[in-house]
Write a structure and sequence with these properties.
eight-stranded mixed β-sheet, 300 residues, 21% strand, alpha/beta, single chain
Length: 300
């Protein structure tokens, strides 16, 4: 059974992020895990990560999990720039997905210092979106392979949850608040759940924004939200990639087979797996998930 080491590293914009590093015997290959949105934290999901880490380390692949700036709902962190320390709010309520570039770059720099030279990026839920965003903004990156776990259509989810008119009204309002320098204010209309600042809501709900990597709703239903090409970041990926969904993922609009078919049509060279009876978080199927990941990575 793998025993993790507590680690920390600092991003280029001055945020220190904590993580857990499960070290394999040979310090060459490593998989970096990107957690999802919501109240996520890698420190409260040990069972899943230990199962995956055990499978990977047996294949001599180390495994890094870390809390990125979007961990928790609201979290105050120290930002250190030019020797000055400022307290700023982060977490899901304030995160902008493009900032994942800073977090991933910092993780890679830390691991290179540790002696690793071959990197895989694993993203779960929003983490899968972050792989697409990172690949877009860092096309010449050091990552060799990607694993996308249960990427979701958050724009479509909030459109469906709020309804057409409230969704469009709130999106317009968020844009106005950003212009009025009130971007960090929490949106009262949708409290208590979810909790978003105007800037974070606009980032996650904007159909033409970076976040909207998997616009499944627009394909499955007669809904037109985006002006830009659909799946543009996903289709642009040129690295070997593995895509995994749970058969009973609660965010696939009730049809995981259709979701996977949509992705396969746009990236036919990728490897696709559906885990029977598994939900969005693969609860109860962690060992199977780890085995699929480890087997695929060992062949790359």
């Amino acid at each position: 059974m793998s025993t993790p080491t507590l680690v920390a590293f600092t991003t280029a914009d001055g945020i220190t992020l904590p993580g857990l590093l499960y070290r394999a015997k040979r310090r060459k290959r490593v998989a970096i895990y990107l957690h999802g949105n919501g109240s996520s934290s890698v420190f409260y999901d040990e069972h899943t990560h230990r199962a995956v880490a055990d499978a990977l380390t047996k294949r001599n692949i180390s495994y890094l999990t870390f809390n990125n700036r979007g961990a928790h709902l609201i979290k105050k962190l120290n930002v250190v720039q030019r020797g000055q320390v400022k307290r700023k709010c982060f977490g899901m309520a304030y995160e902008k997905i493009r900032d994942c570039v800073h977090d991933i770059d910092a993780a890679i720099a830390f691991l290179r210092h540790e002696g690793y030279r071959e990197f895989s990026l694993v993203g779960s839920s929003t983490g899968a979106n972050k792989i697409c965003v990172y690949d877009h903004y860092r096309p010449k990156n050091r990552i060799s392979t990607y694993i996308l776990l249960a990427g979701g259509d958050d724009t479509g989810i909030y459109y469906n949850l709020l309804g057409k008119k409230p969704f469009n009204r709130l999106l317009k309002q968020a844009k106005q608040k950003i212009r009025q320098r009130q971007a960090e204010n929490i949106i009262p209309e949708i409290l208590p759940k979810p909790i978003f600042s105007y800037s974070a809501f606009y980032d996650i709900a904007n159909p033409d924004g970076d976040y909207n990597c998997f616009p499944f709703l627009e394909v499955l239903r007669p809904v037109k939200l985006s002006r830009k090409p659909l799946f543009r970041y996903f289709k642009a990926i040129r690295k070997p990639s593995l895509v995994i969904y749970g058969e009973k993922d609660e965010y696939t609009w009730g049809d995981t087979l259709a979701i996977v078919a949509i992705l396969r049509e746009r990236q036919p060279e990728f490897t696709y797996k559906i885990i029977p009876d598994a939900d969005h978080m693969f609860a109860g199927h962690e060992q199977e998930l780890g085995k699929i990941m480890a087997t695929w990575l060992s062949k790359q």
